[in-house]
Amino acid sequence: MKQELKVDRDYVGEGIYRENILDHYKNVRNLGKIENADLEFHDLNPICGDEMTVSLNFDQDKVREVKVLPKGCAISTASASILSEELKGKNKKEIMKMKTEDIFKLLGIKLNSMRIKCALLPLSTVKKAICGVKNE
Question: How many domains, the chain?
Answer without folding.
Answer: 1
